């Protein structure tokens, strides 16, 4: 406890060079807000959210494709709850459902297999959105569908990988007046991928990375470490009980058996080479048309893209808390429970 008190005192009274620390995990975003961590820090330490919410970084053309598929009465679209409320260029899946389209919320991808087996007259398409953490679940789902001999199970993929987008952020941050000085590495993602993937980025851009757990104490220790390591290209693991340097080789092997790297579109950032995962050609029968969904149309004044890139904080968007609320979200960052805007609003920030 004495050590933690010393860390708290250091962070509250810090008066050194300005530090701008980015978390790239939606669960970290929620935990930081829930624990009131921004209020425990010196004005010279700024926390910003990055592209760590999979729903938030999904582009509108992907939603449009899901809506289009749901209009075909032979299809049933299955998705996690947050994704249903994200608008495409015209409407959301929730709005399509209200108009009679085949859309259902599920809690697990594996529900797709049971539903498809019970209803062979319909094609069940799962909205496969996520990072390295969730991709293994989609591999298991499709493997089980194949084992059962089902021909009415498909996915529409919008699967992202973290290292490439973080490298993109670092490259585009060069020369800025207040660049990111440290990254809270994504704990859940690193549990699968390991953390050595970030070492080349850390060394190239002289930015420290620390893998963190999700308690308030763990996050404070991580922020302390990133402040102390400012300017150093180091990678550390403060979550050893869950994260190993090699991650989860079995999960990665399963993913690699069915998926391969591809270019991917990120909200506000465009297409980033090698930052996504797609089904291999031999599994194309499971794909509902995931290729080329790269367009993003957000012309309603929403500044989610700037939030995801760390250019502004949620509260700096002029729509935050007025035109845009969880009850009436204008952007994906206010829809998702992992979104920065949602969490800031819930905390009254």
Q: Give the ordered list of helices and strands.
A: HEHEHEHHEHEHEHEHHEHEHEEHHH
Question: How far apart are the termini?
Answer: 28 Å
Query: With helices defined by DSSP (H or I, 4 residues minimum), what is the helix count?
Result: 15
Order of strands in the sheet with most strands: 4-3-5-6-11-10
Description:
The chain has 349 residues and is α/β, with parallel strands linked by helices. Helices cover 37% and strands 18% of the residues. The chain is built from 15 helices and 11 strands. It has helices spanning 2-13, 26-34, 60-70, 81-84, 93-98, 111-118, 135-147, 162-173, 187-193, 199-205, 216-228, 249-258, 304-308, 332-335, 340-346, and strands at 19-23, 45-49, 75-79, 103-105, 123-130, 153-160, 182-185, 209-211, 235-237, 259-266, 270-279. A 6-stranded mixed beta sheet has the order 4-3-5-6-11-10, with helices on both faces. Helix 7 links the parallel strand 5 and strand 6 (153-160). It is globular and about 65 Å long. The mean pLDDT is 93.
């Amino acid at each position: 406890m004495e050590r933690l008190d010393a860390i708290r005192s250091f962070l509250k009274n810090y008066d050194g060079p300005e530090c701008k620390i980015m978390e790239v995990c939606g669960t970290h975003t929620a935990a930081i807000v829930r624990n009131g961590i921004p209020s425990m820090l010196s004005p010279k330490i700024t926390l910003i959210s990055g592209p760590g919410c999979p729903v938030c970084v999904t582009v509108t053309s992907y939603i449009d494709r899901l809506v289009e598929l749901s209009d075909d009465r032979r299809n049933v679209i299955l998705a996690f709850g947050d994704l249903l409320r994200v608008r495409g260029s015209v409407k959301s899946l929730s709005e399509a459902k209200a108009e009679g389209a085949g859309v259902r919320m599920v809690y697990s991808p594996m529900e797709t297999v049971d539903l498809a087996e019970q209803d062979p007259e319909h094609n069940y398409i799962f909205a496969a959105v996520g990072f390295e953490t969730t991709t293994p679940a989609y591999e298991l789902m499709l493997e089980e569908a194949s084992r059962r001999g089902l021909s009415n199970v498909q996915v529409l993929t919008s699967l992202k990988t973290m290292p490439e987008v973080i490298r993109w952020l670092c490259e585009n941050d060069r020369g800025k007046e207040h660049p990111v000085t440290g990254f809270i590495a994504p704990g859940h993602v690193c549990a699968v991928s390991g953390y050595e993937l970030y070492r080349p980025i850390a060394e190239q851009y002289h930015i420290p990375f620390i893998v963190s757990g999700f308690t308030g104490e763990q996050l404070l220790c991580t922020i302390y470490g990133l402040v102390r390591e400012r300017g150093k290209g180091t990678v550390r693991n403060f979550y050893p009980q869950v994260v190993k340097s090699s991650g989860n080789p079995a999960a990665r092997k399963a993913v690699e058996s069915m998926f391969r790297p591809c270019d991917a579109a990120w909200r506000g950032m465009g297409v980033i080479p090698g930052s996504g995962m797609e089904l291999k050609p031999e599994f194309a029968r499971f794909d509902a048309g995931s290729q080329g969904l790269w367009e993003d149309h957000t012309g309603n004044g929403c500044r989610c893209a700037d939030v995801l890139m760390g250019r502004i904080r949620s509260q700096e968007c002029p729509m935050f808390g007025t035109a845009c609320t969880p009850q009436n979200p204008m952007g994906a960052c206010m829809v998702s429970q992992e979104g920065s805007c949602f969490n800031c609003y819930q905390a009254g920030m």
